[in-house]
Design brief:
mainly alpha
């Protein structure tokens, strides 16, 4: 293979990798709502970033509102609309993720074939990238629609409830590790581990 062709193919493979990694932030990097860290399950996609999909800020916002509908003061009509939004968002996400998986698999097949047309590789890369952009735009638009559904008072209550949940998780995380090394005993009433059998106990 000529040096120039090899370079282009290498760049194509690198682009596939970049798109694959980039998709892990499609949902996590929406502005205004940080990492979820709890609740809901992610959809596995291409085997590499199913967990990251749990951090959909829009999906998390809807779940949070529905879980705390009484505290936030949602009406029955608002709950119904939020459930419809949630279903539409999940349906679009699942279908688009499947299309991206197919496109990425086709890119992989094309780049593995040294005789494949580079124009076809580029077109498939653009297809995958356009799907990624479209998926993110769907999430951003859905989030705006969700927020537009709430009154100013409900937005304030939602923020308060969210902060409570985040604080609870921060407090819970304090019991999982010891900055000086070793695991901390999460239960203060639990007996310490028994000494090894080959040690004598005085």
């Amino acid at each position: 293979m000529k040096q120039g062709t090899r370079t282009i193919v290498t760049l194509g493979v690198a682009s596939v990798f970049a798109l694959t990694v980039g998709m892990s932030t499609v949902w996590a990097n929406e502005p205004g709502y940080g990492t979820e860290g709890h609740g809901g399950g992610g959809h596995s996609m291409m085997g590499g970033y199913g967990a990251s999909m749990r951090h959909s800020s829009t999906g998390h916002l809807i779940r949070h509102l529905l879980e705390h509908e009484q505290d936030i003061g949602l009406t029955a009509e608002q709950v119904t609309k939020l459930k419809d939004m949630q279903l539409n968002l999940d349906t679009t996400r699942i279908k688009t993720e499947a299309d991206i998986q197919v496109a990425e698999r086709e890119v992989k097949a094309l780049t593995e074939d040294e005789k494949s047309d580079l124009g076809a590789v580029e077109a498939k890369l653009k297809q995958s990238g356009d799907l990624q952009v479209g998926l993110r735009m769907v999430a951003i638009k859905a989030k705006r629609n969700v927020l537009a559904l709430l009154t100013p008072e409900q937005r304030a209550k939602e923020k308060t409830e969210h902060e409570k949940v985040m604080q609870q998780h921060k407090d819970a995380d304090k019991g999982y590790g010891n900055p000086h090394g070793g695991a901390m005993n999460a239960n203060p009433h639990m007996a310490p581990p028994a000494p090894p059998s080959n040690m004598s106990v005085q």
